Amino acid sequence: MPISNITVFMPSVLTLVGIPGLQSVQCWIGIPFCAMYLIAMVGNLLLLFIIKSERSLHEPMYIFLGMLGVTDIVLGSSIMPKMLGIFWFHMSEIYFDSCLLQMWLIHTFQCTESGILLAMALDRYVAICYPLRYATIFTHHLVTQIGVVVILRAAILVTVSLVLIKCRLQFYHTTVISHSYCEHMAIVKLAAENVQINKIFGLFVAFTVAGFDLIFITLSYIQIFITVFHLPQKEARFKAFSTCTPHICVFLQFYLLAFFSFFTHRFGSHIPPYIHILFSSIYLLFPPFLNPLVYGIKTKQIRIHVVKMFCS
User: CB count, 10 Å around CB of 25?
Assistant: First the structure.
């Protein structure tokens, strides 16, 4: 691809627009975003405190939930402070390397969250389909190994994407990112060079992580539903379903928002930019906000300890 005469060589500073077309009302949009972020932080920290302090919750299911809470805290904190700085204080400039770091944090912990949701689905699959072998299969050692593998998978794949940007792309058409945070494709689209490899690897990461996890989560829940429907007692069926309900709610909202954001960014040229940017921002902020509420309401053991804490 020929390089235009009007290019910037390795820019040191980039500019984040925020939400294109809605700059005049961004200060108001920041209010519900900030409220969601604060609720997400308080909810996840409370969840982590309860899981850590209650010995009865030191089980694989709740350990995975704790991992999800940590992931949500990091994910929300990677995007919201800078976003609110753009919305409220017009602090739109960001160093190029800081932008790459934000991109790495966001995508790494998105992939990590997907892996944790898969681990939670497998945990429920073993607990319901093989209850007598659950304690011998899901040991604390296995849980630790799963956590390490999930984090390493995400970190390595996203690091390769970052290195491809840093080493391959040196000339840029513009330093203005029409987005409210630093996202892989938003940065790649600025480049004045051949970005085909970057795009292909981005798709590879997305389908390797989300595609692999989604397939195995779906297969796990299909097998769970088959097993539950064959249970002879209605009470046992209801109890099994109640343990899966929070996971299904979190799983559906995470992947539905993820696929909408992914496909509109690449193929939704007819969709107004502000709609895409709004949904992309909500996609990153909504899971950390919703997850502690879903698990706090739907999980009996956590609900009991929350009530005890506030009553005492």
Answer: 12
